[in-house]
Design a protein that fits this description.
Blueprint: H1 2-25, H2 31-45, E1 51-53, E2 62-64, H3 65-77, H4 83-89, H5 103-114, H6 128-136, H7 142-166, H8 170-182, H9 192-212, H10 217-234, H11 242-255, H12 267-297, H13 302-312, H14 323-331, H15 341-360, H16 368-387, H17 389-394, H18 396-399, H19 404-418, H20 426-430
Antiparallel strand pairs: 1-2
Helix pairs in contact: 1-10, 2-3, 2-5, 3-5, 3-6, 4-12, 7-8, 7-9, 8-19, 9-10, 9-11, 10-12, 11-12, 11-19, 14-16, 16-19
């Protein structure tokens, strides 16, 4: 027990050190080396409003240019002369009302073209992607980053589906594809704000399939700890819960196919341990942001913490959301419901037919423990919406993607209830 605890503590601080060094090191990239591509990025961001719909009239296709412009602004205003302070404050230039139709985009344009003094801080997050933005702007602009994301996301998830097929997880792979389509994964690469969680989900899903089919659960528990930390570092609040729920669903689906009835850990134990380690990584990384900031900046950071928590859960005077509003906004944005009224009707009919299908073709031997776990996981995104109701209301156009876990969980529930699936054998594990 002590040895295992020491391992997790060591992994936590090693990961913290690597990510922290990565964040600070990018501050030394020369501004002039990025200038040409930053100018091009600023021009492109001003071509559209802060909320762009790739499919007109479909909220699910909306991109958050607001966040992308701020990240570019932070990346441009990073300062190698005081890298530690600069990385902690993550300051940028703001002049206009940020919620004006194109306010943050024009602020970015002015920042890059006239180099005004930065005047607005964004202390509360690690802003890990800023380091990547600075690096990529040495040789491309934001349009090039979108293209690179599209190629890499396609390759990553195509590789995952092929891997699942080779491991005998064909029906699970079909469920995975459906869950991605219903949350508009094809829109994800074209917004810097929420693409990084999908990188994390894809990479951890690959590791889950590789090690889960071989029964190497201890490795995966360590991965869940690192995943929580990476999620907090790269994307604190958008679809953060997906980096836990999607790999966990895959792990449970693989575990349900094993021959060994008494294999340890139990499905419940596996779910609890993975969740705890992910939570420690995620919350611990956020706490360390404030600890490092307090030490580096020599100030009390507690007021920043309490103020932002109050706003996001809807108890602040500036909050605009509530639990019911948040639930409805996210539910009606999932595809294909958000395409139009007729699609909403067709979706409802399909859901009724689906439920009837499960009732008619329900098999006799059902593993109820897995059904309960899948059902709990399916509900977690909605619990998240109600707790973080202000954020889930204001940013529904990307928080709705957390329902990918719900769709995948429903798919796995269906497989458990109606499909007699071949168990993974020793040969499957060695592939």
């Amino acid at each position: 027990m002590k040895k295992e605890l020491l391992k997790y503590v060591s992994v936590f601080f090693i990961t913290l050190a690597v990510l922290f060094i990565f964040r600070v090191a990018s501050e030394f990239i020369d501004k002039d080396a990025m200038r040409k591509n930053m100018l091009s990025s600023a021009d492109k961001m001003c071509e559209n409003t802060i909320g762009v719909e790739l499919m007109k009239g479909v909220p699910a296709s909306q991109l958050d240019r607001y966040a992308d412009s701020i990240w570019l602004n932070i990346a441009w205003n990073s300062d190698g002369s005081d890298p530690l302070s600069s990385a902690m404050w993550s300051s940028y230039f703001q002049y206009r009302n940020p919620y004006d139709e194109n306010g943050v985009n024009f602020d970015l344009y002015e920042a890059v073209n006239t180099d005004p003094e930065k005047n607005h801080e964004y202390l509360r997050y690690w802003h890990g992607p800023v380091s990547l933005i600075r690096f990529f702007h040495l040789f491309t602009d934001v349009g090039g980053m979108y293209t690179i994301n599209a190629v890499l996301i396609c390759l990553l998830y195509a590789g995952l589906i092929i891997l699942m097929w080779r491991k005998g997880l064909i029906k699970e792979a079909i469920c995975y594809i459906i869950s991605m389509l219903m949350v508009g994964v094809f829109f994800v690469p074209f917004c810097l704000e929420y693409v990084y969680n999908f990188y994390i989900v894809g990479i951890v899903s690959v590791l889950t399939v590789i090690w889960g089919t071989k029964g190497k659960y201890k490795r995966l528990f360590t991965v869940f700890l690192i995943t929580g930390m990476a999620t907090n570092f790269f994307d604190f609040l958008t679809t953060e819960i997906l980096t836990l729920l999607i790999p966990l669903l895959l792990l449970l689906a693989i575990r349900s196919r094993k021959d060994e009835k008494d294999e340890k850990p139990t499905p419940l134990g596996m779910a609890v341990k993975s969740t705890i380690l992910w939570g420690i990584g995620y919350c611990g990384m956020w706490i360390m942001k404030w600890v490092v900031a307090a030490i580096a900046l020599g100030m009390n950071t507690i007021p920043y913490v309490t103020g932002h928590i109050s706003q996001r859960i809807g108890t602040s005077s500036v909050s605009t959301g509530n639990p019911i509003k948040a639930l409805i906004a996210n539910l009606i944005t999932i595809l294909p419901v958000s395409i139009g009224d007729m699609w909403a009707v067709f979706t409802l009919i399909a859901l009724i037919v689906f439920i009837c299908f499960i009732i008619v073709y329900k098999k006799k031997n059902i593993k109820k423990e897995y059904l309960i776990l899948y059902g709990i996981i399916a509900l977690i995104p909605y619990i998240r919406y109600m707790i973080m109701n202000d954020h889930s209301t204001v940013c529904f156009e990307f928080t709705y993607r957390s329902q990918m876990a719900t769709v995948l969980a429903i798919g796995f529930i269906t497989l458990e209830m109606v499909c007699e699936r071949k168990q993974l054998n020793a040969n499957d594990k060695k592939r």
